[in-house]
Amino acid sequence: MLLLALDTSSAVGVALLEGERVLAHEQHLDARRHGELLAPAVRSVLASAGADRRDLRAVAVGVGPAPFTGLRVGVVTALALGEALGLPVHGVSSLDALAATALAAGPVGSRGPLAGGFVVAADARRREVHWARVAVDDPADALSGWRRTAGPDVSAAADVVTEGLPAVGRGAALYRDALPGPDVLAGAPGDGQDPVALPLDPDPGVLGALVARRLVAGGELLPAQPLYLRRPDAQVPAALAGR
Q1: 47 Cβ contact list (under 8 Å, min separation 6)
Q2: 0.70 cut: is pTM over it?
Q3: Domain assignment present for 139
Q4: Radius of gyration, alpha carbons of the chain
């Protein structure tokens, strides 16, 4: 099954997958240009894989939680593609995708720094983070070997209940004093692995593989609508609210 995966919860990410195998992917970090970057990235990824949009069989999209404007770009684009091409659109938590991305990036095995569990934290602006706490059952299985034990939630970084676990993600990098975690995922001593940088954002290829796995094996998939955990900054003026 050819699946197109999109995520605009932070970076602009697009991937094309055959099942869980990534055929092409592209990712850009520019918080002000989600709308300008996403459609060209979709075209670029399809062209890189030699595929046409009519070859697609499903669309996957990260639904947040995330800041409002950027997240809407990805969700609306996914829904528009689904409507135009007659495809199912599957939503997944962007924090789940970040958790799977973190495990996929780290060294495999029980000695890895995330094997005992970890916290994922994304930048929620206003000096807050969107976060979830993760327990790891099988560090070698980035897609199915873990489960959320708390969250998704939004709070000040200092109020996140980490239970002493390391934190990963862009929110953790911004507030490292409140959310300590390893700066690199280094391999175990003597195992010959090179250090791997901690992921800051969900990898669109991992997001797509996560959705593909959950479609086959079961797991939480969400409606393709933004997952917001707080009210928007823009409010209707009181003088106009009753009109």
Answers
A1: none
A2: yes
A3: yes
A4: 18
